[in-house]
User: Fold these one by one.
Assistant:
Number 1:
Amino acid sequence: MKIAISGTENIFSLFHSGNLEILLKTANKYKIGYIELWVPDNVETSEINKAKILLDKYNIKVACLSSWKHLNSLGEEITTQKFLLEAIDIAEFLGSSIINTYFGGNVKRSVEEAIQNCKEIIIPVLKKAKEKNVTIVLENEFDPGKEDPNCTDITRKAERLLKLMEGINSPHFKCNFDACNFYFAGEEPYPKAYEILKKHIGYVHLKDGAKYVSEVYD
């Protein structure tokens, strides 16, 4: 099992000078040999060569290359497809076999339409992923955000995410199982969501979390 530290925390963001080195030093401090590298949070695509030099310096590997791209968000699909095709080459260069992305909500599509649209977007990506032996993992999400106030992102519910996985039906397209995100979305993470999706899990996020109660928390 590979255990990595994720670079999504604010102290590792591009707003901080030397952010990637901070991430690598943190992983090194806790004797963690892998990181989850976020583009562009930790590094811009144009800086990948410099990132590789730093990774080699600290002898730390990339377990997963991640971004905030969405496969189903209105107007974002083609941009996401283009990024994922590029990300496969970046992942290969960095020695990673996993790329993490998101689905996103879209009030104009039913579950069936969203799955069909995803198929059309992801087919060329998965063809290249197969050639490079890379797996695209889809993280289940919880935050509707201003673009999805009606919570239409199908990854919020295990049964709908299962339909998507079965609809795509590729060994190079798996779930990034985030139990805390299911919890925030009002879905029982375990045993329900896990048992439904376990055949399709290719990667896992672990974090803590709690529902906000104003009387309890400041």
Number 2:
Amino acid sequence: MTEHEFTVDVTAEDARRFAELSGDWNPLHTDSAYAANTSYRRPILHGAFSAGLFSRMAGMHIPGRDCLLHGIKLKFVAPMVLPASLRVRGTLVRGGDAQGVVEVVISDAATGTRYVEGTYDFGLHRHSEAAQALPQAPQ
């Protein structure tokens, strides 16, 4: 069975940059004073941020460079209060080299609290020999 895991530390600045890119300035995610008056007491990370972590798993690890995502399903189990150290674990549960389904869990790296559970399904895209020579992003 193919598995991979990575950790990422997420700060309020990361949430601000995500808001800037996405245009989602919901104050629950970006305004400490506003969030202090909610049941969470602190800003929580955008749920859509976790979709980017699923994409990282797919494009960099399982299956990697040739991945073509067909779909992502997310279930938000608990809010991610910032700052957070996240463990992202992916497991290939169906398929193989040409297509498959991967289960992903995003949890707190220290406590194991689950924040997001979900799956993505993938195929592979084709590329030429010239494309293989292009530099890749660091892992």
Number 3:
Amino acid sequence: MIITGHRGAANLVAENTLLSMQTAIDLGVDQIETDVHLTKDQQLVIMHDQTVDRTTNGTGRVAESTLAQIKRLDAGEGQSVPTLLEVIDLVRTQSPTIILQIELKGPDTAEPVVQMVEDQAFNQRVILTSFVHSRLVETHRLNPNLRCGALWTEPPADACLQAIGMGAEAIHINHQHLTAELVQQAHQAGLKIRAWNPDTVEEMQQMIDLGVDATGSNRPDLLIQLCRGAYSPE
């Protein structure tokens, strides 16, 4: 099973920072998941929320702040908010194989993300995801060769058909709403199925037992130990 570090290693290090990404890489993940928004001056920055309030020492909306303003903030543990380019550079420098899973979190992010991925010749090492499926449709229109994953918390009955219709190659489902039937449906439809975000050993084991293709977690250290037979309860 492919192991994804959610926002790097979000429950171990300040989320979506370069330190969090590096921690996930050092742990041995196969993929890193992160989120992008556009700043006021149209720069792609790594941030989950629409505002910087929760994860930095600042306040305000990302879309109403310039890159320079956001770069002055502390994102935790002395880390600054990284740009997407900085994350791509880190992943490329640190590993020849790790995949970067980029969630198109902010509006109007599809085109600039596709452009950056193409400019950086990083096409084969990204998966673009979104809950806003029109962004995946746009991504597929811009570059049908890029891998896309449709995000749902609780999937509709026709999730697989919807995913295929928008050009996605996978469905990404909250672990609480994953079933053996859905895994079978996805695989029969030729889709990958990826779980997010089991953070306890019990939840992780359920995903392993279901046979999902990949699992993302805020505790990639535990997931790695469990998948590789090294987990030992305290």
Number 4:
Amino acid sequence: MRIISGNLKGRKIPFLKELSIRPTTDRAKEAIFNILDNRYYFKNKCMLDLCSGTGNIAFEFASRGIKNITAVDNNIKCINQIKSNAKILELEILTILSDCKSYIEKCNQKFDFIYLDPPYNYTKYKELKELILKKKIIKENGCLIIEHDKNTCFNEKNLELRKYGNVQFSIFSF
């Protein structure tokens, strides 16, 4: 894995191969960030990375200038890897060991960007999306990006769907 753009462009992100996680591919990551780069200004914004895994997406947002980043994952090995890589990259990323639902239920902060990337076999995508909306943790003019496979489908008016091989992104703008 590598950071594809921003002030950390080209930096490699090491991760433990024994973690049973699926990092977002560089190709898919580049595609989604091309969309975001053309629509949003990143400076002085805040971002929540749910089901962070390697922290790949959080690091990409940080490279583009976002300073206030929270990474949430329920796997202590993932959290420790994100902390280690953030230190190497000289980034301040708040890491939280928690499952996404519990974190969202307790969250009082609002974010400009929320990125949700649970395992593809996760069955509660829509429940988490609805909880995020109910808790109103996305700022006005913010964006919720959900990474999923072809078996997950959202049919809503403020949705933009992008497909890149087996990876799909549902982008909700507010």
